[in-house]
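ok trying this again, last paste got cut off
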Amino acid sequence: MTPTSKVTLAQFKASRSGHFSKIDTLGSFDFYTMCISLEALELGHVSQMQSISASVRATSRRLTEADYSGLSKTLPLAVHEYTHFIDATSTVWGADLLERTASAYTSAVPDETQFIRAKRHQDYLKGIRLPAYYSLVSDCLDQSKPWRCIPSIGKVFALDGNVSARPVLFGRFFNANGQDLVRSPISMISLLEASAMAQELFCTMNLLSNSEEFKFVESKILSDKTLRFIYDKDLTEYSVCVHLIANHLKCSDILQAFGVCSLVVRAALNFPSDHFQKITLGSVSSVLGIAPDHAFVQAVFQGIQCGDRGVLYYLLCEALPSGSHENHAKAREGLSSAMQQLQIDEVEASASALEEVYTLSRRTFEGEGAALSVLRSTCLENFTASTEGKLAVELPWERLHLPPVILGDCETTRLLGRSDGPLARKEFFEECFNELHEGQKWVDRFSEACF
């Protein structure tokens, strides 16, 4: 396939890593190619969205029911998948992921000792969503609400089958009668899906806030849909983050819980790597209210020492003061308090995060392709734009460099983001997919040779 050939949806779907496989029926983001598909949409839907948006801006009118129907089909889905893109390319964690991708995809060199970079990358991506072994679903049919979510912790099995030193944190869910429902790991996928779901909800609520008499009916429909998602025991790995917030803060308003969740997830994704070592056993013990020699505290601390962002998210949740969900200002104050309890200086951490993103995005690899270089060149600018509004929970879409996506009719188009810059070109989807898919195939081929 040449760099200018047309990518079909079937080709993209065949290449997908499937990290969000249980929920990506309408659209998807792929960590190997950094590409987005919105399979539920066709170019006509996007044209309708753009026409409605232009009309509303020009007349400053409120949305009609037909307007809302057209926009709610397209915008929230696009926001959800674009959030995955931003989190995977323009956070501290994402800048590291792009650097790992560049290292892996340029490892097919004459020096065979460098091939290991490909295998390490595949192993790393596999760990983003833990295998099904780590999730346990009971046969209990009673799913009475509200659910309780309490943490437990274990160890990950290494590639050779032995128990590793790396902890894995779980959320254990119980129904209103205290019966065991499911155990789900708090993985990177948990954080990433909570982030995207929150942005999707904020987008839909913004549409409803600019609507007329049907707002209350549609708000109830949205609330019911969200509750079905978080109370689906087959999807708890994706919803565990908001459950932890709601349980800890005793917050019954799911939108408020997602608001806090969004802030804490973004803090975890942007936590500088060198600051994990600044979190002491004593501060972990203090936040959890358990003696430092307790096995659970020791295991959580080990997770922090391993740089586990899921464990960090859990600790930040536990350190939030009561009332943090009441409004955005209290949520931000609560997050600052949580950082202080972990003995983290926010100003210093922010400076270190910026420096880390700058360093990672500027590191070059011989043989790095043009598309991957473009993605890495926009990383710092997107990171800066998305972290400037300390009180904001919504991403500033109009200020972000976002790529085109592939639709269900195989057309490519860009729905959000800046109209200028290197990602705005329609052709970038094919260029990015073709280049990074070649890297993915190399990683898969070499990894298969390792046994």
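PB: full thing came through this time. The radius of gyration is 22 Å.
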